[in-house]
Amino acid sequence: MRARLVGFGVLFAGFGVLLIAFWFGGDRDLPAIRGLPSPGPLTSWGLPVVRLLHDLCAVATTGSLLAAVLLGQDGRSIMRRAVPRWALAWAATAAVTVLLTLSDFVGVPIGEALRSGALSTFVLYVPQGLAFLTVYGLTLAITLLTFLRAKPRFLLGLALLALLPPAYAGHSASANDHDFAISSLMLHLAAVTLWVGGLFGLLVFLRRADRPLAAVRRFSTIALCCYGAVAISGAVNAWVRLGSVSQLFGSRYGLLVLGKVVALVVLGFFGWRHRRSTIAAMEAGARAPFLRLAGGELVLMAAGMGLAVALSRTPPPPGGDSTHAVLGFDLAPFAAGRLVTEMRLDPLLLLVVVAAGIAYLAGVRRMGSWPRWRTVAWFAGLLVIAYGMVGGVGVYARAIFSVHMVQYALIGTVGPVLLALGAPLALMPYRRVSPVVAAVAYVAPFPLLFLTPLYEISQSVLAVRLVVVLYLVAAGVVFFVVVRPWAAVAVVGAVQAALAVQLLAGGIQGRAWFPGLELDWLPSAAADQRLGLLLHAGLALVALLTLTQRPAKEAPVPEPEIRAVHAIVN
User: Fold this and answer.
1) Are 98 and 133 in contact (CB under 8 A)?
2) What are the CA-CA distances from residue 150 to residues 60, 70, 202, 570 (Å)?
3) If you ran DSSP here, which 8-state letter would residue 430 be given?
4) Residues in the chain with pLDDT < 50?
5) CA neighbor of 155 nearest in space, from 61, 14, 15, 20
């Protein structure tokens, strides 16, 4: 009975707040202007309602998968019953969203939009249609893979991936600083869904679990991280769209943002209560306090989701200063000093760096004794990677090829070498990776980038650029950790030789991208490409010299302590 009341409260709060907020500020169906097309009230009011259903199904699918991961053996029944149902519902709402968005896009009712024959063009070439077509395909894949008994961790990653395409189809994609807005929105969507979904999963499946306390403790840590990510990414995204504090109080969009801020503060209080009292009550064997507070928290979360959907249909206030049409931000003429002073703090990339730092410190704390120089090397590597991603090099990398090569050297070689000196494998459980596989993974990006159109695509498409950047970091770390130093020297030397042949004898890279920026201060393409090769090789050489050096006296890490850490983490 109590579960039904919570379910009713979730639906009432979510759809009630959606309709009120949409009436207040949304892009609702206004009286038709003669001569202009109108999709009609069914589309205008039905689209946000279906979008909320879509988001609720995404939360339920992701939360069920997270609950299956947290509950371990108790999660098998979740994978058999709950996950495929919610994933299929998620796919269905994505399909309906495509139809309603098509109607809204062409400005005619659904039936007329379908008869127009524009559906195939819409889903293949228009970002809104392509985004939800991608979601539809991924959610159907989750449904199928559930029946094939795929691992819940893999399906959870696939579900988080399915959340991201709509970020390319909203207000963020048309914001002045669109890459920054999209990146923050991607982080926001993933963190919100993981947080709300995890609470939903525990609330539904915790009653039948044999070991609920361990799952709740693990989720408490995840929820705290998600809360911070939601707050930071939400603030960044709101700032990009509003442009000034005055718009926060002087526009309907800003007032709806304030509503989300209030909901986030109250949810923070709920989380504090969980950590202070309900988890302690579970340690004494009482589950009821946690379930009661979680039920009220979930209702408030549903109201916040309804507010968010209404906000996505509310036109933001007019932007401020114009920005570069291609880059999405204004870029001052290059000067060496600006490599230090310029910065673009991408919240998604910074979250990865911060998470790596926290995980390392947690491992060091468990060890008891640990060489201090290794910790210094690890955090020096993180600083190098963070600078390569969001510092001056990251800012100018999209406009100057030589700076881009410096970025690749920093995030793919220099930073990973320092991280490898931090001996991360001694602090965490891992599966052995073949040195040959690690070497192939390290070498593979360079021919793909410079022998295929991937380099140009990565410059113009944010998602591809993020994948390339994160892959270079991950492949570099694995390579320098797994492969012995002098073998690494040989592999990196071969990479530099291959790059020299390609960049000196081959064509100009970014032939279409760099002229399209229309920046009159760009250097000569041929000379800049040669400079980029020299800078990349020089930084790689410095990094390799660092890798082959070791302190003269270094106490080995005690093997029993390593095994103890792995046992604790597992």
Assistant:
1) yes
2) 18, 16, 21, 20
3) -
4) 1, 29-34, 320-321, 552-570
5) 61
